[in-house]
Amino acid sequence: MSTVLVTGASGFIAKHIVRELLEQGHAVKAAVRSGPRRAQVEALFPDAPIEFVSLDLTADEGWDAAMAGVDVLMHTASPFPVAPPRDPQDLIRPAVDGTLRALGAAQAAGVTRVVLTSTCGAIYKPADREWSRVKTREDWTETEGPKTTAYEASKTLAEQAAWRFVGEHPEMRLTTVNPGMVFGPAMDEHYGSSLATVEQLVTGSFPMAPKMNMPVVDVRDVARIHVRAMSDDGAVGQRFPANAGALSVPEMAALLSEVYPDAGISRRVAPDWLVRTMSAFMPAMKTAAQGLGLNADVDGSDAPRQFGFDYIPSRDALLASAEFIRAYEPAA
Fold it and tell me: Which tens digit of pLDDT belongs to each residue from 190-204?
């Protein structure tokens, strides 16, 4: 069994990864930024032999010590805001610098196996602007494209920096996992911005649904891919888009309104001109406006073939998220 350092261990995806690792018998070092985030993980795994370390993507302190005794680096930590920042560098700097800081500390400590959490957002807006086609793991998002969000640029640049690093250090054995929009059940109420789209739909915050689609994957499948990748030699040097099938926002709204007819979920579709107008004063609509006219679907078939599993259907992942959010709604 391996000892795995999981960065950003209090994150939505990372908590599922920690659970998967523990269930498979691995030892876990959980890197968190603060005491409250540590408490979240401890509450979920009160009896688990987890070693905690405090790390920050923007600071050097603690990284070398954190790598002691580690076999695998599982780097999930990256800023993921609900609203786009005023300055894209507020996302780009910590994403890129944090990735290089983690890889540098791993390489210095002789930790050569790394699994990095990227995103389909680093894939589906390529420079060729062929917006209608399904993208593949060979594609890269144009980081300075007119429709590229700060988050998509940050994740693309961070992943590209990681591949350059391992190119300069051939002993490093990197796999990246590129999830689409990650739905499914959270493990606690601290799911951050990961389920923001579902939350906005089921609470009626979207008066109209923009005509945009997105790749969707269940968080449990994302965790499974990470853990299986770390011990699969065939995964070294590969990117694995994780996508069970794209859904449009109107499709999501229609499905949720059928399941929860009394929730007041709007099924109205927003015309593109209205989304662009609303984007001037609604941060969520600004992100939507940058996705208009894009087929964000990405071929996710490589991961099931490599790791031997079937995706949880996108619709089931969406409903699992909605069920969780509605269960916590009275306490909100």
Answer: 887 778 889 888 887
Query: pTM of whole model > 0.90?
Result: yes
Number of domains in the chain: 1
Q: Is residue 97 part of a domain?
A: yes
Positions annotated as catalytic residues are: 155
Q: Is 306's pLDDT higher than 50?
A: yes
Average pLDDT in the 221-250 region? Answer: 97
Does any domain span residue 15?
A: yes
pLDDT per residue over 18-35, tens digit each?
999 999 999 999 999 888
- Say which CATH number the domain at 183 has: 3.40.50.720
Domain housing 311: 3-326
Report if residue 331 sits inside a domain.
Answer: no
State CA 219 to chain mean position distance.
9
